Amino acid sequence: MNADMAIGIRLAVGRGMGSRLAVVRFVLVVLDIGLCVAVLLFAAAAIDTIGSSSDREAARAPVLDKRAGVTPLSLVNISSAYRGSSISGRQVRGGPLSPVPPGVPAIPGPGEVFVSPELARLLDSDPALRARFGGTRAGLIEPSGLVDAGELYFYEGVDRLPDDRDITTAYAFGDERRGGTTPAEMILVSGVAVVLLAPLLVFIACVGRLGGVERDQRLATLRLLGATAPQVRRIAAAESLAGAVAGLAVGVAMFFAVHRRVDGLQVGNFRFSAADFVPPWWRFALVLLIVLVLVVGAVLLGMRSTVVEPLSVTRDSGAPMRRLRWRLLPAASGVAFLLPIALDLVHENKDVTMLVSCAIASALVAIPVLLPWLVERAVAPLTGGLPSWQLAVRRLQVDSGTPSRVVGGIAVVLAAAVGGQTIITSVAGLHAGTPDLSELQAHRLSGYTDGLYLLSAFTLLAAGASLLVLVVQQLGERRRAVAALSAIGVPWQVIGRSLLWQNLIPIGFGVLVANLAGAGLAVATLHVLGAPAVFDWRFAGAVSIGAVLTVCFATVLGIPVLRASARLDALRSE
Amino acid sequence: MTGALLAAVELHKSFGSTRALAGVSFSIAAGEVVAVMGPSGSGKSTLLHCLSGILAPDEGTVTYDGHELGRLPDAQRSLLRRTDFGFVFQFGQLVPELTCLENVALPLRLAGAKRKIAELAAVEWLERLGVADTARKRPPDTSGGQSQRVAVARALVTGPKVLFADEPTGALDSLSGERVLKAMTDVARASGTAIVLVTHESRVAAYADREVVVRDGRIRVSEWQ
């Protein structure tokens, strides 16, 4: 057993130390897994960031129920605009027995003001703004009293509260019913988590399975030398494990390197605080474990239908075309999750939230599951055209699985981004002009939009890296065929364009399916929330173009490898 | 076929509608070198694969050391390949990721030997085949002739009873080919290893004790040299 593991790891290391192309491939795989792991770790931490800002928001919400022995604190919410940002705070008046809001040591006396660090910085740099806050600065509000590190917030002590404002009488602070996450937000947050996780896991599984042809040859040789079938599986698992472990190490290093720089980073209205971006150890460990299991699992699963014999490797490809029936399952289950809501069978908020979250997750899973089938059906009848087109179409007709899977991952990101943005735009539109939509809720909704852009960008980056690995890998495996094309006079530009078509055809379908699915998801979700859908076509267009450009960019980056593969010495057999 | 180490009786094998073997019987004694000759597509490689248990014949039996290969489970046949059989093919059987030394040590490591012990034995075999200088190189960095001798070393490192060689010099120039053949047959004879040598070249067959000619899936001639 140990010897098999050692041989597998030795093969993986050997792969990384072999030819220059093999080194490039190994490094790309490790970097790609690393990038995915880093994004996953940030996602694991971001759940807490969103949660902790909600918690802090709830912690400073006033409790209005009367409490014995407490002198209530009277307060008025104030908000004003400052150079596109919003400064908000509370004017307060209380006594020695009044409750103290979180983040401040005491209730400010008349003429005293506690400000957030970011507001203090602004006040120090802008005399005009300072003139608007006439009080004496009594101190800074601690992070526990702020939603995020960049919040512009204050508590001002006054003698008399303005008559023309609603005065709130607080008997305590920390009302969980207010300021907490709304069902719509919960759907968004769980949706975002799925968005982030699903495609990254698809990429990792794809990248982990790459190198199939070469691996098959190696394993066949091992069988010839007397390795048993279980031994060969153990060796293959150990081999993939080595790449995964290296990827994990790189991912963890990336996470910590970026983590130190994230402190104070402003994205839209949201300012990150490094302290919030530490996932609990168990979630950290879980991410690493999932990635390891996924890489090894994908290899072993891929080998399930493979019979490694001493002379060759045969694959049980099953039906000649992909079957549609089971591929419809996730889409069907998505509809099934929405049915109880449509039929008015559930009323509890949390049940509705759970069902809608499940429906979103199912619909997103349906995309990469359906896309390979769709691409395969779509390219099957294609013929003719320019040589580059013909080469690409024929290649896709033989095997469209791997490009479709990676592109499926990109499509998931797109669908979720388009769907998420539509929900945000619509929910914000619904609340516009609604007096009870707090500043913070508006603030958070805008933060979600920024977050969505950021997450889409990161995941597209990971997708681009995966696609590059795929291109380089494919060129390595088809080196002889590429060299043969070159030998008969096919210019490398034609081969390059065929490579581009090979990726553009699936992404074309991906973009189409993603936009339809994203819009469909949003409509369904908003219907449940009782809001009309408002589509943000500019956002959809931007991320769609981003996805197509990612594919083009990844393919262009693979061109140097293509030119190396097109050299005629690749035809030498001895 | 008395005293045969490996014997095949009335082997039939077809691939779809193509008949590769049509009733071949064959035997080889311990330490004997037999050349299996014939033109391309005559069925000689299929015979070798059936004799070594890699392919199961449609009809007929292959018996090795009293055991019928067709009745052995996969694990037993794997064990035979690890301990009693060795293989040398035309090209492509070395693992390019491993050094030549590690390639030769690989069968011993698959059998559970410690790395150092396996590599000591590998060094010895590389020396016997005259390619000790390739130990730290990877197969792509060696010449075709060197690669084949490394492959022979790997095939013999476990002390097999039978070495199956399928066109072992087919991808080499004549001088390199001669060197590989001489080294292979000398070393195998010294260790008492029988060789089934598939070839279509008579100069290669000249290294054998006996040659059989396969044509259209049948043995046509069998003669002692």
Automatic annotation (TrEMBL), chain A:
Keyword entries, A-Z: Cell membrane, Membrane, Transmembrane, Transmembrane helix
A matching Pfam family: FtsX
Subcellular localization, as worded in the UniProt entry: Cell membrane
Annotated transmembrane regions: 21-47, 186-208, 241-261, 281-303, 324-342, 354-375, 406-432, 452-472, 504-527, 539-562
Residue ranges annotated for the ABC3 transporter permease C-terminal domain, each copy included: 192-301, 454-560
Presence of the UniProt keyword Cell membrane in the record: yes
Membrane topology classification: Multi-pass membrane protein
InterPro entries: ABC3_permease_C, Membrane_comp_ABC_pdt
GO cellular component: plasma membrane
Protein name: FtsX-like permease family protein
Taxonomic source organism: Lentzea xinjiangensis
Lineage, highest ranks first: Bacteria, Bacillati, Actinomycetota, Actinomycetes, Pseudonocardiales
TrEMBL record, chain B:
GO cellular component: plasma membrane
Domain ABC transporter: 6-224
Cited InterPro entries: AAA+_ATPase (IPR003593), ABC_transporter-like_ATP-bd (IPR003439), ABC_transpr_LolD-like (IPR015854), MacB-like_ATP-bd (IPR017911), P-loop_NTPase (IPR027417)
Top-level taxonomic group: Bacteria
Alphabetized CDD domains for the sequence: ABC_MJ0796_LolCDE_FtsE (cd03255)
UniProt keyword annotations, A-Z: ATP-binding, Nucleotide-binding, Transport
Cited Pfam families: ABC_tran (PF00005)
Molecular function GO terms recorded: ATP binding; ATP hydrolysis activity; transmembrane transporter activity
Name the record gives this protein: Putative ABC transport system ATP-binding protein
